[in-house]
Amino acid sequence: MLTGNPIVAQAADIRRLTGMARTLKDFFRHGTLRVLVTGALLSGCASGPDYQMPRVDHSAIGTFVSQSIALNAGQSVPAQWWKLYDDAVLNELVSDALLTNTDLRVAQANLDRARAIYGETRSGLLPATDVSAGASYGRDQTSWGGSGQAPKQWSYTGGFDVAYEVDLFGRIRRDIEAASYDTDAAAARLDAARVIVVAETTRAYLDVCTLGDAIDVTRVSIELAQRSRDLILAKERRGAASRMDVERAGVTLAQAQAELPVLRGQRESALFELAALLGKTPSQIPDAARGCSKAPEMTRSLPVGDGAALLRRRPDIRQAERELAADTARIGVAVAELYPQISLAASASYLRDDDLKGDRSFSFGLGPLISWHFPNTTVARRRVEQSKAQASASLAAFDGVVLTALKETEQALSAYDAALAQRKALIDARDQAENAFKLAELRYRGGSIGYLDVIVAQTTFIDARSRVATVDQQVASARVSVFKALGGGWETGDGE
Fold it and tell me: What pTM, to 2 d.p., does this model score?
């Protein structure tokens, strides 16, 4: 027959066990303080090398090798450099891309994961606890001293264990340090993704606009070729022109018409690229972008700053430096594995059989209960060697990223300057070709030259106009490449 209320009895036992748990926690919060301080004094510092920022060659922080009147080395890139175009549509597109781009969502999720790992690693500074409680009903024949079967009864059990690793050799601290640097590296990767998204969104929009302008130029060229063909057809009907002249005019018209579908296809491709960057389907292309047929101009010289500003700004350099710091900290984690791991522990347990008076037992242990784990030093030493090799690789990778950043910037500046020079020359060529075509028409009407000369002049003029439209796109793209290489676009402020 059951005695008392089993639920009430169990609640009382749980309260008793909880009180014991508080005592053990207080012990670890206060009683172990002297032990932890002693451990810190013994250890002196965390294991492994302390991280130091890698040095960069002095030549990397000066002015860029590529210089021209189109560049302003005295001013750094503004944070929101795309606003230099002063185009409301572009501003809205970039803002939307920064919110909805799928690559940025992935990078943000990876940063959240890194932060969660850092929080998990920091929990190593806290004691680990394990609480258990249970109740069972039945016969306990092992504790029954009478004859026959033991009566049915309630039995209650409970336990509480606390364990704390004394970070005597800095393993946990180095692990936390590495996780912190990993989080910084993930944040830098997100910033690097922002740089790419901003640059490619701007490039896609400018491609749409410059190709729209090229289509308009091609339409005018087609109209010009059509007008010339109609004119020569009329003269043929009057017997003043040959059939060969008509065919030549037809060739020029067909060549001009052949350019149009290619440009339209390229423009549609740029629109689809823009939609993907915005996180939209091809059917969701913004109407404002589709309607652009004239690219916004940037009349001022490009603010490029110097090498020192570049190294501070580019997120991929910051990412490589933080990865090097994390790998350096992991050397300390591996070195700490060479030493014993010391843990402080405390435990308590409770057992009660409800029907057997006095049949209850408490047991507990208060630390320091030291668990001393001796590692396999051969394995640990090999891991130290692995960590050192990884840190060396990360240092080489950092140096490579710095060199790549400088190379990409110089290449982008040089390509932009070359594109500007090419554009200027092609504009001069277009203007001269236009004058030559007008003179050829006048001389043909005056009868001093044949129509073949007119066709040649017209073809040259049409080709020159098409090349100017093409180089306009190249200049716009080269300008974006400069801003991308300089690493602007990830900051949150205006910075102008």
Answer: 0.81
